[in-house]
């Protein structure tokens, strides 16, 4: 009886460690700015789809986040790139939670999601200082190297389009 219990527990532990609580990542989130300084969400969808995006801040409670802004696309974003302004109305997007004013020394995270939780995007973390380093036509995103290290980089939009999906 003891062997069967130990075996069942071992199988349960093995299954728990091989199944995740997150949905597959099939897109890459980034940010950019417009010529007149508006913050842009940038989403490179690699295969499945993305239905919307949320900008949030981690709270002191590790199990909670604070939503700073949220947007739903009028149509699912299929493979390819999408951009939208985060601080003003954008064609093809509905603001679910209006963007609250961003503040210095706070780290923000933007990620994309699907309504049915079938996939999501990797997130991009940034501060206002990071945003201020951006120029129109460039994208800040979190790149994942071949060995799994993550770093925030700024690349031209064309390079983001060709390179971002290699990181998923």
Describe the protein in words.
This protein is an alpha+beta fold. Helix content is 17%, strand content 45%. It contains three helices and eleven strands; from the N terminus they run αβββββββββαββα. It has helices spanning 2-18, 128-132, 157-163, and strands at residues 25-33, 39-45, 50-58, 65-77, 80-85, 93-97, 108-113, 120-122, 124-126, 138-144, 150-156. Strands 1, 2, 5, 8, 10 and 11 form a six-stranded mixed β-sheet that branches. The protein has a five-stranded antiparallel β-sheet with strand order 6-4-3-7-9. A hairpin with a 5-residue loop joins strand 1 (25-33) and strand 2 (39-45). It is globular, with a radius of gyration of 18 Å. Residues 1-19 have low confidence and may be disordered.
SSE layout:
Layout: H1 2-18, E1 25-33, E2 39-45, E3 50-58, E4 65-77, E5 80-85, E6 93-97, E7 108-113, E8 120-122, E9 124-126, H2 128-132, E10 138-144, E11 150-156, H3 157-163
Parallel strand pairs: 1-8
Antiparallel strand pairs: 1-2, 1-10, 2-5, 3-4, 3-7, 4-6, 7-9, 10-11
| Tally of contiguous helical segments | 3
Largest sheet: 6 strands, mixed
Structural class: alpha+beta
Q: List the secondary-structure elements in sequence, H or E.
A: HEEEEEEEEEHEEH
Brief rundown of the structure:
It is built from three helices and eleven strands, in the order αβββββββββαββα. It has helices at residues 2-18, 128-132, 157-163; strands at 25-33, 39-45, 50-58, 65-77, 80-85, 93-97, 108-113, 120-122, 124-126, 138-144, 150-156. The strands form two sheets. Strands 1, 2, 5, 8, 10 and 11 form a six-stranded mixed β-sheet that branches.
């Amino acid at each position: 009886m003891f062997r069967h219990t130990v075996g069942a527990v071992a199988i349960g532990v093995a299954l728990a460690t091989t199944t995740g609580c997150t949905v597959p990542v099939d897109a890459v989130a980034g940010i950019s700015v417009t010529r007149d300084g508006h913050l842009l969400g940038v989403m490179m969808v690699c295969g499945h789809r993305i239905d919307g995006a949320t900008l949030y801040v981690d709270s002191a409670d590790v199990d909670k986040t604070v939503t700073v802004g949220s947007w739903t696309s009028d149509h699912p974003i299929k493979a390819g790139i999408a951009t939208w302004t985060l601080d003003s109305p954008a064609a093809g997007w509905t603001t679910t939670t209006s963007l609250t004013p961003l503040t210095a020394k706070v780290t923000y995270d933007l990620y994309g999601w699907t309504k049915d939780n079938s996939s999501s995007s990797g997130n991009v973390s940034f501060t206002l200082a990071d945003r201020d380093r951006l120029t129109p036509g460039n994208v800040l995103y979190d790149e994942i190297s071949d060995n799994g290290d993550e770093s925030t980089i700024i690349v031209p939009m064309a390079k983001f389009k060709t390179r971002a999906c290699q990181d998923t």
